[in-house]
Amino acid sequence: MSASPEVQGIIPEPSHSRPSSPSSPGRMRLSANRIRLSSFRLSGTWAQLAEQLDGESSKAQTSPSTSGVEASAVLPDETSLPEEEPFVQVAYFPLLQETLEAKTEESEKSTEAAEPDDATGSSDASVGGSILSYHTAGGIWNDIPMAEPDAILGIAQAYRACQAPSKVNVAVGAYRDENGKPCVLPSVRAAERMMWEEEEVKEYLPIEGDPDFISAAMKFAYGEDMDMDHIAAVQTLSGTGACRVGGHFLAQFWPRHPIYVPNPTWGNHIAIFKNAGLKVHQYRYYDKSKNALDLNGMLEDIGHAPDRSIILLHACAHNPTGCDPSIEEWKQIISLISEKELVAFFDSAYQGFASGDAEKDAQPFRYAVAQHVPILLAQSFAKNFGLYGERVGTLSIVCGDVMQKERILSEIKIIIRAMYSSPPRHGSSIVKTVLQNDTLKAQYYTECASMAERIQSMRLRLVQALKNAGSLHD
Questions:
Q1: What's the rounded Cα separation, in Å, for the pair 113 and 124?
Q2: DSSP 164-182
Q3: Which of left, alpha, beta for 293 (phi over 0: left; psi -120 to 50: alpha)?
Q4: Which residues pair with 87 in a beta bridge?
Q5: Count of CB atoms within 10 A of residue 16's CB?
Q6: Which residues are catalytic?
């Protein structure tokens, strides 16, 4: 509705003081000379009101006394205002003192109670305090509580603040070289040089992301022979974004089905899925007394979950325990998932980085696909490519046919559009360049295996050093 007036002029800052009058003590008065609209663009019934007030203003100016004049105009009901009437330009719209005076005892009391509440002299009853200028920047957010720091990132923040030269960060899963510095893979540097020479553009990507990157990422995950007509896949903001978009999709199109996550799990999983609208439960995963997988407890809890629930599974390098089922144990888990018609949501953040063999690390979800289990896959390239700050990932859903794929993609794109519109392109271009170039791809696989072997070697040396220091803890 176009009923509200458009203010084209400049409204001077009003005074917040309340001059008293012998005849009207404590009442708020505003002079027509202090507040005026140099140009007030009005239409319809508003224009009639302007003419009425302007006429009363003229009468008041010619009258010997205006102390007894009361404004009879009443603002019209908004629903009664016409939408299609020509505009009337009012050059000067004076506001009479009498139109702003309180006419009841209640209004007098509220005006008298609204004394200035701070050094700025703001008053809730003044025109300046309620319409023209309000001082809320320091007060409106005053009741926001201090949130608890993230358990993992909070430790990282403490690490950065620590001045000890021998400090070690054991919280965030980010690879470092011998000097404790972030490591950029040579294959990644080579890909960036190729992108520079080819003058890669910085244009927006489509909502679903770079199709060539998505194709390369799906082959990396599912294998070269996977039929892409059966995968609805989009580029996401790393694995975190994939979990969030996937959770939103499930909450919308697989409603009233809870999601079960391992206990323990990555610290962000529960918050992500709760915020996506899913009801979150946990299943037993790790036996602390044995420092081993609690397979029996895991199978028992999954068996008690309602049929057709959602089960979150870490594809490899379980976070935070690092303890993964063997392939035979995976077969038992997936067989039970198939029997109960559960939806398997795999989070694959370490493919190739866990064992040094990307094909081996993909076996759990590839086996689930072969068993016709409905799966979603959140895929991240932060760890295995060392692209932590580039936020490169995908979300994929295995479908029955092409039409199903297109319908799913159409809905996921609507979800993404309202979240972040489209993903960043630099990091995905790096992954695409590496995986589509045979030389760089072979180089990358060697570098990834080298990182995994070095991590395993450091762990063995740490355990031996602890034993040599007298530690009896396993």
A1: 9
A2: -TT----SS---B-TTS-B
A3: beta
A4: 43
A5: 18
A6: 266, 347, 383
Query: Two tokens at 359?
Result: 């094909």
Q: How far apart are CA 406 and CA 196, in angstroms?
A: 34
- At residue 94, φ and ψ (nearest 5 deg) are -75, 145
Helix (H) or strand (E) holding 49: helix 44-62
Token look-up 């990091």 returns 427
Separation between Cα atoms, residue 433 and residue 387, nearest integer Å = 14
* Residue 364, token pair as written in the block: 């759990």
- At residue 370's C-alpha, the angle toward residues 365 and 375, to 5°, is 45
Length of the chain: 474
Residue 231 corresponds to which tokens in the numbers above? Answer: 């995968």
> What confidence score (pLDDT) does residue 155 get?
79
Query: Token pair for residue 80?
Result: 């009664």
pLDDT of residue 179: 80
Q: Give the closest residue to 323 by CA, choosing from 280, 347, 354, 344.
A: 354
pTM here? 0.70
**Strand 310-314 versus strand 87-90 pairing type:** unpaired
Rounded distance, CA 350 to CA 245, Å?
19
Q: What is the CA radius of gyration of the chain?
A: 34
Rounded distance, CA 253 to CA 410, Å?
A: 13
Query: Helix/strand/coil (H, E, C) string of 444-471?
Result: HHHHHHHHHHHHHHHHHHHHHHHHHCCC
Pull the structure tokens for residue 271: 């918050």
| Count of alpha carbons within 13 angstroms of residue 224, beta-carbon side | 3
* Helices 426-436 and 438-468, axial angle in degrees (round to 10): 100
Residue 398: its pLDDT value, please? 96
What confidence tens digit (pLDDT) does each residue in 194-236 have?
999 988 889 999 999 999 999 999 999 999 989 999 999 999 9
Could you tell me the two tokens for 85?
Answer: 């009437």
Task: Yes or no: say if 377 and 395 are a contact pair by the CB < 8 Å rule.
Answer: yes
Residue 24 pLDDT: 44
Encode burial over 410-442: b for 16+ CB neighbours within 10 A, e otherwise: eebbebbeeeeebbbbebbbbbbbbbebeebbe
Residue 11: both structure tokens together: 């409204």
Q: How far is CA 376 from the centre of its chain?
A: 20
Q: How far apart are CA 293 and CA 469, in angstroms?
A: 27
What is the Cα–Cα distance from 126 to 105, expressed in whole angstroms?
17
DSSP β-bridge partners for residue 88: 42
Among left, alpha and beta (phi > 0; psi -120 to 50; other), residue 154 is alpha
